[in-house]
Specification:
It is an enzyme of class 3 (hydrolase). Its EC number is 3.4.-.-. Its cofactor is Zn(2+). This is M3 family oligoendopeptidase. The structure is a single chain. The chain is mainly alpha-helical. It has a domain at 22-167: Oligopeptidase f, N-terminal domain (Butyryl-CoA Dehydrogenase, subunit A, domain 3, Up-down Bundle). Helix content is 65%, strand content 3%. It has helices spanning 22-44, 52-86, 91-120, 123-130, 139-146, 155-167, 169-182, 194-199, 206-221, 224-245, 253-261, 265-277, 279-293, 317-331, 333-344, 381-399, 412-433, 437-472, 479-494, 505-508, 522-543, 549-558, 565-572, 580-601, and strands at 184-187, 190-193, 348-349, 361-364, 371-374. The strands form two sheets. Strands 3-5-4 form a three-stranded mixed sheet, sandwiched between helices. It has a two-stranded antiparallel ribbon with strand order 1-2. Helix 14 (317-331) runs antiparallel to helix 15. The longest helix is centred in the last third of the chain and has 36 residues, at 437-472.
Length: 609
Amino acid sequence: MQQSAYPQTWHNQHIYRALDCPELAADMSQARASLAGLAVFITGLALAPGNPDALTDGLREVRLRARRIREIGWNVAVLAACRGSQDARDPLARQWASRARALNADLFKTLAPIEDLMLGLPAPEFERLMADPLLGEEAYRLRHERRLQDQRLPVAAEQLVIGLGTDGLHAWGNLYNDLAGKIRLTIEGRDMGLAEASNLLSSPDRALRRAAFDAISAGWEGEQETVAAILNALNGWRLELSRQRGRVRTLDALDLSCHQSHIERATLEALMAETYRARGLGQRALGLMAGRLGIEAMGPEDLFAPPPAASSRAIPFEEAVDLIAEAFARFDPEMGDFARMMAERGWIDAAPTPNRRTGAYCTKFASPVEPRVFITYGGTQDNVITLAHELGHAWHNWLIRDLPMSQRSYPMTLAETASIFAETLVRSALFEQAQSPEERLAMAWAEADGAATFLVNIPARFDFERALVAERASGYVSPARLKALTDEAWGRWYEQSLDRYHPMFWAAKGHFSIAGFGFYNYPYLFGYLFSLGVYRQLMSRKGAGEANVAQAYRALLRDTGRMSAEDLVARHLGQDIREAAFWRQSLEVVEGAVTRLAELVGEPESGVN
């Protein structure tokens, strides 16, 4: 691949010059000293609401002191995570990540009495405090958390949970990331890590895809006992904590996940029910792709396969950025400029490195508020779409950079809206600009592949995790049982559309081992269908000549950290996502995408419909 004019490694030196620079150590020392002072201040603070003015002044001081501590901890954590993504074996990255987690945990422990007060205040006194401009910045978050006040443990117990989680719960997720960074594979005589091997799953050569798939599966098979221990520990911790919290009212794992996702249980149930009814769309897409590939049915190694007529030319990184920027600019010129700015400023890390972690993500520094994107770019079309996805997240973060920190934190359900909206912009633009049947097929293929991923694979992950949580409540879940649960979930959703399933998916997919989140799956489905609904409505308004459509989209994204998903949709789209009708509208868009592929390749004589 030709040399790119854009840097492909992060430029973070203006945050801290390096993990071993004296400025970073000095800031962490300052944060620790400030935290000690904050603890003393809170101990001497009169928390009883009997003196309203004194309480307000004290809480304002607490918030101001805590803000800088949190910014330092956040920045160090992000910098360490960035370096650890480039090299999972970097000892300084691990060391500073641990110190940042400890600082953040100690800050939350110190603030636990304040949190307990704010969540337990009578409504009139709480609302009086929220009328203060500074304290009111957290009004939505606190109102949301007050709904689970009956799940709170005593302050000392909450502090214990936070403290133990640093080297308990989160250590398991860190162990998984370490495993992903250290696994080495040999594929066709080449030694490589998981990240590089994963890119081979997009190869036009089926034999190479199968070799990569088998090597990746074997690599995780060798670590199956460790990954099983990780999944059992994470889910065991969550179940026990839920039991301890449920003295007044028992909430199951999905109730808690919906709260974390800022959606109602009725919304999740409507989403999953409509998706199950529409699973045939995803299966049909797989059948169409299999027919075009000249195989009877897709295998798990074929799920990222390009169409056979697709160009094997590697797309240079610079070209990918330009393609994405131009597609973004057709909807919002500033969004296009932003994509180029991300690349020009070195805010995207794309170059392969030894011991590199798998996957792609977007993160952000707290001060200055700047997004960062991580991807292992190999020049495939799938890489281009993934880059667009992460730049969609980055645009979301950029739009809210001026908001208070608590309002810059949004749930996963709404986070995926911006990323998949960005994907849709790029796919639609490239399809319209296609000059040849091969180019049109490539775009239609990508859209149909998305239908298969979101309507079949993501729900299968959700079903697997529901089953895992249920079985973990009765005891340890073995690797053999995890494989069986995976096959059962894939069978319910894929049915006969694959020639076999992927029994090691529970280990290979890192989402199941994320410590901070359970059910890191359905939010992607939510974001996919929700973003398609948003896209359909906004593009319809734009086509009708309505002005300020891009601004309407920006306004929606800016509200994602300060209202529930239901309220967001009601305000900006005038619809109710608890009703099946909302999701059916989005599924009509998916059906159109699958039909477009069928028109280009023709329905196979046999296969899944």
